[in-house]
Amino acid sequence: MLVGVIACVALSFWQGERREQRLEEIRHIQENYDGPVRDVSQVLPSRQDRLAEEDEWTRVELHGQYDDRSLLARNRPLNQQAGFEVVVPFLLQDGTTMLISRGWVPTDSSGGAPESVPAPPAGEATVTVRLRPAQDGSGDDNPPETLLAIDPAVVDGLEQPYLGAYGVMESEQPPAAEPLQAMPRPSVSEGSHLSYQMQWLAFGVMVIAGGVYAARREAQGAREARLQREAAQAQEYVVVDKDQLKSGRLARPLPSQERRRKDRRDEAEEDALLESRR
Question: Transmembrane residues, as ranges (predicted)?
Answer without folding.
Answer: none
